[in-house]
Amino acid sequence: MEEQIKKTAARVRIAFACFWILPILLILFGEAGGGWVGMYAGDVRATYMAETITILLAASCVPVSLKLFSWVLIRKIDVVTLPEALRFYAMWSGVRLALLAIPVLAGFFTYYIVLSSTGILCALIGLTASLFCLPGEERLRKELHINKE
After folding, report:
1. How far apart are the C-alpha atoms of 140 and 120, rounded to whole Å?
2. Predicted TM-score (pTM) of this structure
3. What is the DSSP letter of 134?
4. Most buried in the list 13, 20, 21, 125, measured by CB within 10 Å?
5. What is the pLDDT of residues 97-140, one digit of tens each?
6. What residues does each domain of the chain span?
């Protein structure tokens, strides 16, 4: 059982690392330039739409991702056997990070396509919220109520 706990914690840490690598790659790609950077910078309608969508994504995905995991932890994960709880924990941790990745990637994309700092702000909100999801074996044990033997 200890081995499964360590594997699950490692899987969640890898997913968290991938979550942070995606925006870094998008930033590197955007800073390298290209035809798509600033493509709609002068278009007021496109800027308004991109900013509005990015703000709505950040305002909806961040609280939903944090609260959904808490709800699932209490209602679904706590009531099953330990091996199944570990599997659900890894899966729902990935879902939570995927929900946080949506406003982060949309924010950076908005920043580069319309050169609007609103996109960066929304991306930073998502990245900051991800710090509440820092993975680790100790956190996994605490959330799944597993005592170290």
Report:
1. 31
2. 0.91
3. -
4. 125
5. 999 999 999 999 999 999 999 999 999 999 999 999 999 999 99
6. 2-143
